[in-house]
Amino acid sequence: MSAVEPARRPGPPPAAGPQGGVRLTRLPEPVGPLTAALFAALRAGPGEGLDDAPAPSGEDPLADLDLQLALYVSYELHYAGFEGVDERWEWSPPLLAFRAELEAPFEAEVAAATPANRPQELQSVGDSLQRIVAADDGPPLSRYLEAGGSREQMLEHVVHRSAYQLKEADPHSWAIPRLSPGPKAALLEVQFDEYGGGRAERMHSVLFAGTMRALGLDDSYGAHLELLPAPTLATVNLLSGFGLHRRRRGALVGHLAAFEMTSSIPNRRYGNALRRLGCGKEATDFYDEHVEADAVHEMIAAWDLAGGLAREEPELAGEILFGARALLALEARWGQHLLDSWEQGRTSLRRPLDAGLSREWA
Amino acid sequence: MAASEGKQREGEATITPYRDGPYLVRGPFSLRDPDGDPIPVTRRTVALCRCGKSRTRPFCDGTHKLIEFRAPGVLETWPPERPQS
Predict the structure, then answer these.
(1) How many CB atoms lie within 10 A of CB A188?
(2) Do A92 and A213 sit in the same domain of this protein?
């Protein structure tokens, strides 16, 4: 990324970050047998070298960094790819077979960690989504950061979120070709806004990159991948898995609905946290935008998209609610990981942020 | 009455009350204060506060969930024909 970054010029800021527009990530360092086998194969020719790849360890897949990072990199081949990795790997049968070995225990553990739907909830998906979100008792991460989170904690939070926010909305777009006209129009109404309403500089991923730069963080795509622990990678892998499998389209739609329904209020709190820490509009713009944007999106996503899909394909109602509940379950684990780490006085990342990265506030 | 019963007229804005939530307004429309000055609108579809407690009025900011605002998404009648949910 930095190799192709244009020189900064005086005058108006670049129209669109992540700067340069090219997002090519270096493969991270392996963290165990799965990533060692995968990354070695990816550096060689497509389709070679995965035959003897080891199987997942049987450890809790949600906490297994080796499994989550291997899955994340497997999925990332469908997004931006990696420097030095042949693009044909994306649809290479050995890669897809290896990925399926990772997905099976992950999916099973997500299902085990997600509360079951009650039969009567399937009658009105919009109502049920509202009740599920209202009853969510996940850890109070946004309240914690708003009330007294430190600068370092806020920076860590941004780094965790960069795993998704720098490609915000992209995985949900995989639902587009799989929906009938009613729910499709609802999804596109949300996505049009997510992608900046035709203005690249208002695209939410671009606003997030602006927040990162304002906080002195590297905003290039994938720059912090080696800092992310398993619970963070799991939240993104959940979504990528829903997005890349058509059979999970109901869960993908439920995920988006719950994501939007749990966004306005926490984002206001994150913006308040940054203001309390002395940050300016460059840093808070992403969060402030999401307060109003997601107040719109949550209604469309719950009633027109998720409710509309359930009316047209009633057999998907359970999957829609499952997607919402799985999001809340994995977000809760992630949030608890952050709060537990901070309570114990240590970083919530795999290692502390380089202080040199974050000297300047906007 | 005719406008809401019939097909939508071309170029007409739509205002939709969402159950327990805001009004969504889909254009074309303009938002103006009582002096006639425009209130800036930055997106095609906006959510207008219905619970009265938003901190970004007239826009919705999601506060209706915190106060457990309840309202139907359809026409309310008085006296109620059946128990309100």
Answers:
(1) 16
(2) no
Whole-model pTM: value is 0.90
The beta-carbon neighbor of B18 closest among A292, A293, A303 is A303
Q: Which residues of B touch A (CB under 8 A)?
A: 18-22, 24, 42-47, 55-56, 59-63, 65-66, 68, 73
- pLDDT in the model for residue A58: 87
Is B56 within 8 Å of A193 when comparing Cβ atoms? no
**A292 chain-B contacts, CB cut-off 8 A:** 43, 46-47, 56, 59-61
Q: d(Cα B33, Cα B52) in Å, to the nearest integer?
A: 17
pLDDT tens, residue by residue, A298-338: 999 999 999 999 999 999 999 999 999 999 999 999 999 99
Contact A88, A41 (CB under 8 A): no
Domain span at residue A93 reads 30-113
Contacts of B71 in chain A (CB under 8 A): none
Do A148 and A209 lie in one domain? The reply is yes
Task: For chain A, list residues with pLDDT below 70.
Answer: 1-23, 355-362
Give A49-84 pLDDT, tens digit per residue. 898 899 999 899 999 999 999 999 999 999 999 999
- Lateral strand order in the sheet of B45-48: B14-17, B23-26, B45-48
Which residue carries 């806020």 as its tokens? Answer: A154
**Chain A contact set for B66 (CB, 8 A):** 265
Of A96, A113, A130, the one marking the end of a domain is: A113
Residue A312 located in a structural domain: yes
The pLDDT of residue B83: 63
Q: Between the CA of residue A180 and those of A143, A228, A306, what are the distances in Å?
A: 39, 37, 12
Which domains are delineated in chain B? 1-71 (3.40.5.90)
